[in-house]
Structure formats: structure tokens, C-alpha cells
Amino acid sequence: MQACHLVANQIACRRGERLLFRAIDLDLAAGSACHITGPNGIGKTSLIRILGGLLRPFSGTLERTGNAGLLDEKPALDPQLPLGKALDFWAGLDGVDSAAKGTSITRVGMADLLDVPVRFLSTGQKKRAALARLLGQNAAVWLLDEPLNGLDREGVALCESLVAAHCAAGGIAVVASHQPIALPDHVTLNLPEFAA
Ligand SMILES: Nc1ncnc2c1ncn2[C@@H]1O[C@H](COP(=O)(O)OP(=O)(O)OP(=O)(O)O)[C@@H](O)[C@H]1O
């Protein structure tokens, strides 16, 4: 596992004309996790994207050591391709060998569905496929936006165990979730209502 550290200093986020939140601090060391909570529209996804460098904060600074891997509602797998080929595309970019790719697919219980076009996968199957892609990415900092959406009970337990293993191996996990999720040693960040 790469060395990793994630520090957010006094982060504020503005979308359109609205200031969604401000003065958010986080300091996550290797092996730790954070559960982001808050009502719909408060800015959880926006914060996840800021932490991943996909959205610029309105103010504040971010320091991240270690590659980030994002899992959100879009699986980022070509819908036209069979699952195996869609994952091969990312494995090529991520430098994942076929043995490691096979292990990731087996871990998420998708080994029997490699020939099925991604567009035919169910919501939960797409989420599992996205987890396989995340596993293959070897990113130290996991940014998970509603990772339990669409997963059945077994899938929820699987996701929880993958996060626990990731943190036990020295990774960081930041999880935005409305649903209760069992996380290892973690802090909870409840985004406050903020009237701009
Ligand atoms: N590109 C954009 N331009 C303007 N406003 C946006 C943009 N993207 C999102 N927003 C607004 O920012 C607010 C926060 O959105 P965000 O998706 O971060 O919230 P959330 O807490 O993740 O919500 P939910 O719990 O519903 O997933 C919402 O009011 C949303 O409409």
C-alpha cells in the first residue's frame, strides 16, 4: 500500500450561488476512515469530489498523499462491453495483471458474469463491478459516495469487509452514506446546514 494522508483545512464549497458548507477540517492518517453524513443536497458528493481533486474548493486547502480511487453512482464501465472487457480496459490503464484482476472479480462475486454486457447488469451488480474496478486500482485513498446503494445484505457486508481490509492494510476510506455502514476506526463528519 502506498503511503497516504489526507488533510483538509477550512474547506468551503460553493455551487452556483449557494455556499454549501464552510470551515470543514479533516485529518485522516493511514488506516483511518471517515463517514460523511447529512441531509440530501447538503454537499456530501461535492465534498467527496473536492477530496478527490475533481472539484475546486471555494476556499481552504487540501493536502493528499496517495492516489485516490472514486466509487460513485456511475460505474465508469463501458455499457456496451461485456463486463470482463470493460474491466480489462481499466486493468490495462491501472497496470493490473490478469491474476490480480481475477482476484478482484472473484472477491466481489462477479466471476460468472464476465460475458454479460455492462448495460444488462442490475444496479447491485454494477456496484459490485465498480468495487472490482476500485480493488484493481490499488488506490490508497478510497472515496466512496453512497457505496451501499443497490447492494443486497450480502453486498453490504462485502463492501464493509472490503473497506475494513483496505484500512487494515494502511489505506484511507472516506464514505458518504445515508445508510448505516460499519466502518473500522473512524470519525463521523456530519455536514451542517449552513445558510449562505
Ligand atoms: N454543477 C452544479 N451547479 C450548481 N449546483 C450544483 C451542481 N452540482 C450540485 N449542485 C447542488 O449542490 C448541492 C449539493 O449537492 P451534492 O450532490 O453535493 O449533495 P449531497 O449531500 O451529496 O446530496 P444527496 O444526499 O442527495 O446525494 C445540491 O443542492 C445540488 O443541487
From TrEMBL:
PROSITE patterns: ABC_TRANSPORTER_2. It comes from the Bacteria. Residues 6-196 form the ABC transporter domain. This is Heme ABC exporter ATP-binding protein CcmA. It comes from Allopontixanthobacter confluentis. One of its GO terms (biological process) is cytochrome complex assembly. The keyword Nucleotide-binding applies. One of its GO terms (molecular function) is ATP hydrolysis activity. Keywords: ATP-binding, Cytochrome c-type biogenesis, Membrane, Nucleotide-binding, Translocase, Transport.
